[in-house]
Design goal:
The protein has 337 residues and is mainly beta. The protein has a single domain (51-336), classed as Beta Barrel (Outer membrane phospholipase (ompla), Chain C), CATH 2.40.230. The chain has three helices and 13 strands, in the order αββββαβββββββαββ. It has a twelve-stranded antiparallel beta barrel.
């Protein structure tokens, strides 16, 4: 998920000046006041849309000790307007048979892989832009923004998750060399709805919640991302690096009554610390087509997946050891349209 506001906006902030209409002399050669040109400023200074196909080699699914390969199809939108930025991504993730779709019985192999839809939205409103000032810039600090967004998912596996969450807080945007950036956002996070079929009474000796729906308490979170062109390389090798990391605090058990085996969540760490991107279109057709076709490879690390305690939860220990920690190579191709 990288926001490229500083990099993309810089290429589109120059507008051609309009020539004023020529004035004609009047009686007594009185000067004619020049008409100030009107610049037609677009609503979106950047409007970037992409389609991506990617492959994740060794994902994990809590409670399943096997590794899961996933094909990922994604649409991503990013824009910059007068007061901030908007980022939206919608993904369809198709698992292999190690992450089976329902109603495959637990322990049965050979079922079709599950399909997940995941959406994420993040938006910023810059204080420098809102208040028409530069007071929120100092040294490498470029801006401070109000930061907010939401997440949702739906998956047809046995658990049947249906996550709904919101975030709100501040973002601090810093400049990096070669027109890069680093953003850090301390936020309030609230996963106000989800689903877990294992918490239903049929799977807990008659003790649980009837519908499996959960509601977690609000907690703290920190979301970060960065991007930088490797500008020290020769022009024929247009590479860039980017990444993200996010910490989400403990959010409770998600149920109003204690359920055996359903222990408190712990701090979750979800990251893609590095992604190396080759701008194939720029390399082949020149700067005019920069980032129209990208090929990239990344590494993912996800500890305490979904907040499940990888050390103490029965979902993650014993025969399921390692299922709540994801370490995976991730590669794909993105096309701008």
């Amino acid at each position: 998920m990288s926001l490229r506001s500083s990099t993309l906006a810089a290429a589109l902030l120059s507008f051609s000046a309009l020539l004023p209409a020529a004035g004609s002399a009047v009686a007594a050669d009185m000067p004619v006041k020049a008409v100030k040109p009107i610049i037609d400023v677009p609503f979106f200074m950047v409007n970037d849309n992409r389609l991506t196909y990617a492959y994740q080699f060794t994902a994990t699914d809590p409670g399943d000790p096997g590794k899961v390969a996933k094909q990922v199809y994604a649409f991503t939108h990013f824009d910059v307007w007068a007061y901030g930025t908007n980022f939206l991504t919608i993904e369809m993730l198709k698992s292999d048979r190690n992450d089976p779709a329902a109603p495959c019985p637990v322990g049965v192999t050979g079922c079709a892989g599950a399909t997940e839809f995941y959406g994420l939205f993040r938006s910023t409103l810059g204080f420098n832009e809102i208040f028409n000032t530069k007071q929120f810039s100092a040294g490498p600090l470029r801006n401070v923004s109000f930061y907010f967004g939401a997440d949702f998912n739906s998956k047809n596996d046995f658990v049947g998750p249906a996550k709904r969450s919101v975030v709100a807080g501040l973002q601090f945007a810093f400049n990096l060399p070669y027109k890069g950036y680093f953003n850090v956002a301390p936020v309030y996070y609230n996963e106000f709805s989800n689903h877990n079929s294992f918490l239903m009474p049929a799977f807990n000796g008659g003790i649980g919640i009837a519908d499996g729906n959960t509601q977690f308490r609000g907690t703290w979170a920190v979301e970060t991302n960065y991007y930088m062109d490797l500008g020290f390389l020769p022009d024929y090798l247009p590479l860039s690096i980017s990444g993200r990391a996010a910490w989400y605090g403990p959010k409770g058990q998600g149920t109003s009554i204690p359920i055996p085996g359903n222990i408190n969540t712990v701090t979750e760490f979800n990251s893609e610390p590095i992604r190396l991107t080759l701008d194939v279109s720029k390399m082949m057709w020149g700067p005019k087509y920069s980032h129209h076709l990208d090929v990239w490879v990344a590494y993912r690390y996800w500890q305490n997946k979904f907040g499940i305690d990888h050390k103490n939860s029965p979902v993650c220990t014993g025969a399921n050891a390692g299922s709540c920690t994801e370490q995976s190579l991730y590669s794909g191709v993105s096309v701008k349209f």
